[in-house]
Amino acid sequence: MNEKVEPLLRAENISISFGALMALDDVSLEIYPGEITAIIGPNGAGKTTMLNIINGFYKPDAGRIIFEGKERSKKMKSNRIAAQGIARTFQNLALFKGMSALGNIMVGRTMMMHSNIFSQALYWRFSQKEEIEHRVAAERIIDFLQIENIRRTPASMLPYGLRKRVELARALAAEPKLLLLDEPMAGMNLEEKEDIARFVLDANEELGYTIALIEHDMGVVMDICDRIVVLDFGKKIAEGTPDEIKANTKVIQAYLGKAQGDNT
Amino acid sequence: MEERALTFPQILLENAKKYGDSRAAIREKDYGIWQSYTWKDYLDQVRDFALGLASLGFKQSDKMAIIGDNRPQLYWGLAACQCLGGVTVPLFQDAIHKELHYIVDHSECRFALAEDQEQTDKLMHLKEEIPRLEYIIYDDPRGLQKYKHDWLIAFTDVQEMGRKFGKENPNYFTNAVNEVKPDDLSIISYTSGTTGNPKGVMLTHRKIAVCSRGFLEWDNLGETENVMAYLPMAWIGDHIFSYGQALCAGFCINCPESTATTIHDQKEIGPTHIFAPPRIWENILTQIMIKIEDSAWIKRKAFDYFMKVANRVEKKRIANESVPLIDNILYTIGDFMIYAPLVDNLGMSKIKVAYTAGEAIGPEIFEFYRSLGINLKQLYGMTESSAYISMQKDGDIDSDSVGPPAPGVEIRISEKGEVLYKSPGNFVGYYKNPEATAETLEDGWLHSGDAGYMTERGHLKIIDRAKDVSKLTDGTMFAPKYIENKLKFSPYIKESVAHGMDKDYVAVFIDIDYGAVANWAERRHIAFTSYTDLAQKPPVYELIKNEILKVNKSLSKDSKLKNSQIKRYLLFHKELNPDDGEITRTRKVRRKFVAEKYGNLIEALYTPNQDNVDVEATFTYEDGRATTMTANLKVRDAETF
To answer: How many Cβ atoms are within 10 Å of B394's Cβ, its own excluded?
Structure first.
């Protein structure tokens, strides 16, 4: 990696345990601006925990997070962190079910709205102008993700693949500096996966988003990511470009198990 | 009467002068809002793009390929090309590589205009093989940021170049437009045809303009019309309707946001004039039927009852007989309760006139729309005649004829029963194919290839493709399309192929409508995995058997067709697909191809007691790759009367 580029986010020596379980043990990783970084590993390796630490939902027992060159205070609340520009999607969907796709996307923009509830209710000049601005932004995202036809459909009536897309839209609506995607392609068929992969790549290449994602489909990861971090039982066992990871024996062992003949 | 402009560049100039900023010429739904462009904007956009093309070296009679969904930019590109004396070659946006290669190569295109990344990728692939293709211009830049080539330029960049070029050459555009003559070629429209390679139909400015005006005058349409531009731009129907008529009348066309939102967008626009192939009317009917099936018992009963009333009334209206008072009252109630809300829901409440064209429509489907109060009429046209041959007149409707000859058209029936015509829209010839031209065009008479006759009312009635009409072994006339269209009235049947030439009886392949049958199956808790699996479920066979029963019942009432009832059938394992060559892009069955490819299936239909047959199927993807699978299809007997 180009050493001169400052990472957008640096996690240094992160450790966290839940009771006796050491979920992450002294893990460091860097996310560089303009890149797609994948965090991979077998089930229970600590991937989602890592995302939860990055977006401040969990506080690490040890280690520190440096975002845009500034160390994050231990006391910082997760909504403050979101306001700093970190947005995420969830492994299990978390949309407002009764709300339309458009409504859900507009929720992603509330962080950027300044008018208060009273002026919004009266739709006065300032809040009207603001509402229009945000609606334009939401429409751009709808156009970007090609979900024009479901704009008015309540989230609960959408098929799974489209719900995932709406969730991605909501995260994009927040215009984050760092976009965290927790298994964006889980449970999808091949066609849906290809679509989402395309959107993730476009979000990165065209809109310039820095993205960190967790994904189990190795084919997708190898195809779209710039860098990969591999976790296994809470430890980082490798990191590098897709080609480096493919050739890494530790990674192969973690995924396929140790060869029988090793100990004899 | 003042002389009317006969070239599209002149017509555009006139419209811009006449309407300026006062009337919208084209609307596009973008970011959820309808964005309008006036006639002045239309001209500005076209001029800038044309000058940009000129600065890239576009010369008179150069060809430009156009591919993509209906976008204002593509219509502007079309007009710009014609302003420079160029010839447009619109392509079907879902055509596979092989077809595109043939057309782009054969038409000698130097320029190509693509809608988006998907289409640009296809053209870039073609450019590697066809060096004559010099420039590719794209409208939507999405996903194309990383493509860096001198010959790949954005639409807006070409316009920017055009503005610069225009400053240096202030008279260039006016001079170029004045150079264009009415008898210059304006478009080469490739027809997919049911056999062999596509043929390039050459049409001129004059032909398109005269025919467009012919249509407008027939129905008294003018500048206040509002239409949806949603048909493939490569189809002559869209070229006449969204381009020719729109410019000649000065009415506004509306481009939907995406193909998936067309119906919803149509509801917002409320078009006054619609032009659609039977497939679209069939699809809408299927959607209605699915929703009715899903609705409450009382609504279903009310719908069934009042549709019967409407049908009865419409039959009287078509026959120009008076409607009994009681039916008139019932129809008024039905209109209030069912018809008007339904028509409004389809976005068709403002329709003055609607046409079905391109293929024969089943009389039942036709009557359904008419009985709702939509003024649906039939039109008979071909690419070779600029779509202008015959159409029905208000107050003189017939559910199975295509109306009297259009003004200026002569129709003759040859001894063999083939329809011949002389239309002002008759084409110049097939591009670089004089043999085919000579076969089709004799002394100004165009051989349609359709079998038909003139009825007592002076209407043209089309039976079928001349080469498809044949006889069963007992001498009964067999017109496959007639039977197929009857089948297609069923919401559960999407396509069908009827066999019977020189056979003892009629047998059919049925393509189920996946959406409708899947919905039906779900309501009955029938589990299935795929189209193939669903089609082979015994309950689905029973469902289709009942649909065939209805068709046989109706055939049995016609003494001439009594013997052409359907005896055996099988449900096809896949949807007939133009990518696999079984139907054309305009959805005409390629009979010869199907007969060769599925010979063993046809054999099974005519082997008594054989109740199943294996089939190996090859699926072709849009990028040309193919995959193979095997399936076992059941063959069943149908009930006859």
So the answer is: 12
Q: Residue B247, class by beta-carbon neighbours within 10 Å (0-12 exposed, 13-18 middle, 19+ buried)?
A: buried
Of the pLDDT bands very low, low, confident and very high (cuts 50, 70, 90), residue B89 is: very high
Q: Under a CB-based contact definition with an 8 Å cutoff, are residues B9 and B177 in contact? A: yes
Nearest to A149 among B142, B145, B260 (CB): B260
Cα separation, A143 vs A151, in Å, equals 10
Which residues of chain B neighbour A206 with C-beta distances below 8 Å?
A: 142-143, 145
A189 touches chain B (CB under 8 A): no
Whether A140 has its CB under 8 Å from any CB of chain B: the answer is: yes
Beta strand A62-67 pairing with A70-71: antiparallel
Chain A residue whose CA is closest to B261: A149
The rounded distance, in Å, linking the Cα atoms of B22 and B375 is 30
Which CA distances in Å does B250 have to A117, B29, B46, B243, B330? 47, 20, 16, 10, 40
User: Each residue of B198-224: pLDDT tens digit?
Assistant: 999 999 999 999 999 999 999 999 999
Burial of B341 per CB tally in 10 Å (0-12, 13-18, 19+): exposed
Q: Which spans in chain A are helix H? A: 47-54, 78-85, 101-107, 117-122, 125-144, 160-173, 190-205, 218-224, 242-247, 249-256
- Shortest CB distance from A143 goes to which of B31, B145, B146? B31
CB contact under 8 A, B260 and A148: yes
Span B247-305, pLDDT tens digits: 999 999 999 998 888 988 999 999 999 999 998 998 899 889 988 988 999 999 999 99
Pairing assessment for the beta strands B135-138 and B199-204 based on DSSP bridges: unpaired
CB contact at 8 A, B325 and B348: no
Count Cβ neighbours within 10 Å for each residue of A227-264 and write b for 16 or more, e otherwise: bbbbbbebbbbbbbebeebeebeebeebeeeeeeeeee
Residues of B in contact with A144 (CB under 8 A): 142
Residues of A with Cβ-Cβ distance to B30 under 8 angstroms: 143
Residue-by-residue DSSP string for A11-43: EEEEEEEETTEEEEEEEEEEE-TT-EEEEE-ST
What pTM does this model have?
0.85
Question: Left, alpha or beta for B637 (phi > 0: left; psi -120 to 50: alpha)?
Answer: beta
Q: Is B483 left (phi over 0), alpha (psi -120 to 50) or beta?
A: alpha
Whether A243 has its CB under 8 Å from any CB of chain B: the answer is: no
Q: Map tokens 């009681």 to a residue.
A: B326
Q: State the complex-level ipTM.
A: 0.71
Residues B521/B526/B529/B533 CA torsion (nearest 10 deg): -80
Q: Which of A142, A149, A205 is the closest to B145 by Cβ?
A: A205
Contact A139 B258 (CB under 8 A): no
Chain B residues with CB-CB distance to A198 below 8 A: 143
Contact B143 A140 (CB under 8 A): no
- C-alpha span between B352 and B331 (Å, rounded): 20
A169 — phi, psi (to 5°)? -60, -40
DSSP run (H or E) holding B514: helix B514-523
Calculate the CA B587 to chain-centre distance. Answer: 8
Rg (CA), chain B: 25
Q: Which of B139, B257, B622, B625 to mutate to test the interface with A (most CBs of A within 10 A)?
A: B257
**Directed axis angle between helix B278-294 and helix B480-488, to 10°?**
30
Burial classification of residue A181, based on how many CB atoms lie within 10 Å of its CB (0-12 exposed, 13-18 middle, 19 or more buried): buried
Radius of gyration of chain A (CA): 20
In sequence order, which ranges of B536-590 are alpha helices (DSSP H)? 538-556
Give the separation between CA B183 and CA B216, rounded to whole angstroms.
Answer: 21
A contacts of B33 (beta carbons < 8 Å): 139
Q: Does A133 contact B at CB distance below 8 Å?
A: no
